[in-house]
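Hi there,

I know you've been waiting on this one. I reran it after we fixed the sequence typo, so this is the corrected version. Both the input and the resulting structure follow.
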Amino acid sequence: MRFSDIARSCMQNLLRRKSRTVLTVLGVIVGCCSIVLMISIGQGINEQNKQMLKNMGNLNDITVYADGGGSHSMATSSSVSGAGSEQAKLDDDAVQNFRSIAGVAGVLPQKTMSYSVDATQGAGSRYVSQYVNVVGVDVTQLEESGYKLASGRLPMRAGEVLAGKSFVYSFYDKYASDSSNHRIEAGGYYCDEHGCVQSEGEDPFFDILNSKITLITGANYQSPDDYRKVGSGSVAPSDSGSGESPTITMPYTVVGVIDSSANNYDAFTSGIVMSIDDMKTLNVKISGDTKANTSSKVVYDQVLVHTQDIKDVADVEAQIKGAGYQTSSFEQTRKEIEKQSRGIQLALGGIGAVSFFVAAIGIANTMIMSVSERTREIGIMKALGCYVRDIRMMFLCEAGAIGLVGGVIACLISAIGSIGINMASLGGFSVENFGKAIMGGDDVSRISVIPWWLFVVAMLFSIAVGVIAGFGPANKAVKIPALDAIKNDQ
């Protein structure tokens, strides 16, 4: 028999008992939908965990400290002290060594300002930001280390700095009333007597890009309790009263805004990022030591090592620890979360597999009944000279067709159900939520995620279940002697 003859005979036999075929296909649909949706919920949990870690920090980053610095990081990781007895220094030599490690994409040394810093902007220092985070970095390594600019450019000369995207919202108008002296960025909250409400975003007092800002600091500088009492000058007084450390003011121009997705209150999100040379110059001004050499070597507070791939983190981190440094990363946390996600996916998949097993029993029952009802037909086919393999293939095709039809319909229903679940969780049915439910996004938290490969696996699995369930009845059919089959009334 030709395959076309087998396929036509398969279709005719399935349509001969429509009710039985429909009920069997329905069992496959239920089983396939169950396993697809259960696995998709597990994928959704995995996606939510990745977004949570991404919001806390870049998963490709390793923060390196010289001593005891792991406690300063928000990352919950295994910060293990190096084995070396001599304290390793985070200097330029160490930075070069980190860059030579295989799998490292960028190395960003950082020196944090250890003094209190305020920032002012506008005529009469009208806009004020207190307790500003200021960090000095190698600005040429920002993009290689995973940081991107939302606008502007990198600093190219002295006095040019970068600002975190939330820095402009840290300013308040010292001449305005308390109720209107600040601006709230999108996603922030404002509170009144009726409670707290999430803001859709307000325009800041000024455009931070290309703005002239003044940093106010000093060795003993203390930010005043009320800037309105300072006056219209650009310098806030020091409260030390000793006169040994004057208040320093340094003008800077913001030439770029860093696009940081992490919800951290650091300089890259809500502060000032300047070059290492500008940081040296500022520290010399604060110390008042005119003989200090700004070209001297710097011992960094920490170094950010950005790997090329998340798979390289463990190996790179191990090599850095072996060199005598302490590290902090999300690698251990990520592995624990992935382990938990796999456990949840296996549990959910097992629940769906039970439904699929029931569907396989239904297919086997349908094929056994089909063999019993068509015993005489099988005998006639054998008497006419049909090969045994053709008879077996005919029954296996019928079982596989039931699995294929059920799998395709189940995938369509699962896709519609997944989109509906996601749209409901996103706040309702709309064109915007429809796109988010399918494509997701950095700010989208989906409950059900069905990757393309899951549809393919589901359909192949449905066909395989059908064929396996029909294998026993098919073998039974070919073993029936032709003479006995012809004598059978059925």
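Quick highlight: The mean pLDDT is 80.

Best,
R. S.
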